[in-house]
Amino acid sequence: PSSPELCSSKTLIVSSSQKNQNQEPSLRNQTKMYLQCYINEKGEKVYTTKKESPLGLATESAHPARFSPDDKYSRQRVLLKKRFGLLPTQHAPVKY
Asked: What are the start and end residues of every segment in region (Disordered) (predicted)?
C-alpha cells in the first residue's frame, strides 16, 4: 500500500518504500509498548492492552523498567537502606 496502515493494535505500519533510506527511525521511536497487566480475583496475572482492569483498577506496564549500568543514585539508595535498617547486613542471618 502507498499510505500508512493502522493495525488493530494501534501500531503504525509504514512500507519500506515510504521510509527515507538516509533517515532510518531510531528503535526508540519505532517500538511502542502497549502491553499492560493486572491481577484478577484469583490472583493470576492477566495481560491486556487496556489501561483499566475489569474491576476498574488501573493496569500497570507489563514491561520491566529500563536498566542502566550507570547507577547515579546508588549511594543515596544505600544511605536510605542503612538509615531505615534495610541492609542485608543489618538483619539476622538467613537459616538454610
From this structure: 1-29, 52-71
